[in-house]
Amino acid sequence: MTTLTKNKVTDLALGQVPSFNSFQQLRENAQSFLRDKGLPGPKEEEYKFTSISKKLEQSISDFSPANTINLSLDRVKSNIFEGFDGDIIVFNNGHFEAELSRFQAQPYELISLYSSSPENLGKIAKFERDPFVALNSVSFEHGISIKVGRNKKIEKPVLLLFFNQAHKGQVISPRVLIEVEENAEIIFLENSISLDEEPYFCNAVTEIKVAKNAHVHYDRLQNENKKAIIVNNFETDIHRDATFTSVVVSLSGDMLRNNLSLNLLDSGCEGNMYGLYLLDGKTHVDNHTNVDHTKPHAESNELYKGVLADRSRGVFNGKIFVRQDAQKTNAFQQNNNILLSEDATINTKPQLEIWADDVKCSHGCTTGQLDEEALFYLQARGIGKIQAKGLLLYAFAGEVLEHISDKNFRNYLDSLVQERLGSSF
Fold it and tell me: Which of 158, 362, 370, 410 has the lowest tally of Cβ within 10 angstroms?
């Protein structure tokens, strides 16, 4: 643990954030945890390949909460992808902006955390599991709670836009709690936007409860500036006969750490995780996933793919736990990577821990280069080398993109991926 970073965090916890009575116990407990633990240092096993504390010491002068910035409605509109039709929820440096958001009277409840006290806040993403969850629990100010009522099917997707621009001495701390009740359905889309090229630190926490027979799809794009430091803790509780699917596409940033956990809490539930990271320059992306099977007859699927060029670095650490009661579990995990440079690096570690004896589980990883025979085959048929290379990489990436739920968002990400594979690579 780094003394300097630990002191900065302690200073934040000692009163630089407004106090909310309804969250007081959560804040005090998280503050105490941070005082004891600090942020993870180089000896912390879970952060072995991602020295986030060191990066923060180099880039962040203190840990004061970020203020809102001047954000216009025109700027918001310019970042809505073509064809989108649905509600828009806007965050300004982690603060919910009701006036810049757009609602069409869809049947769900949205409340600012500033004025509410949701029961499940901090109970799904527990601060003891990761110091950055604790840091967010101490520092967030204006998050939101979304509640989809029983039997409600939200026909149109909900787009969350996170606009980020902070000085070196500020931390952006978005906080989102989503509760989807029995038999309800909803699709969330998320996009994070950098408003300039200056460094900032964004430490986000998202908690989702997926109740009995509910269905939630959550797709995310990470395409921030080359100096952005991002930690994203995303955790879900999935109940009987419910399904949750996550797709995350990481294209740009300085250092990105994604912690994604699926808690399969009952029989018949299903959790799906898909990820794509296309990295160049010195971009560092670390995907840590966790799937916890606790009951029988549940299923999980996980596929992460990476293409790494230049001096970029990828990390994948996927854990699947199958508890003793979780008989008849079906769990799949795969991580595939293509390295386009001798200087690119991937550290991958799929893990499987099983305490049940009647399960179907598999996990694996591959790392290699482009198939030279396939490249030659395309060139022999008149396709230029750069175009042939792009086609092969796009085919590799497409297996993840096809899981994006909203057609217009999929088309938007598809165009970004094609542009990246046809130019930077």
Answer: 362
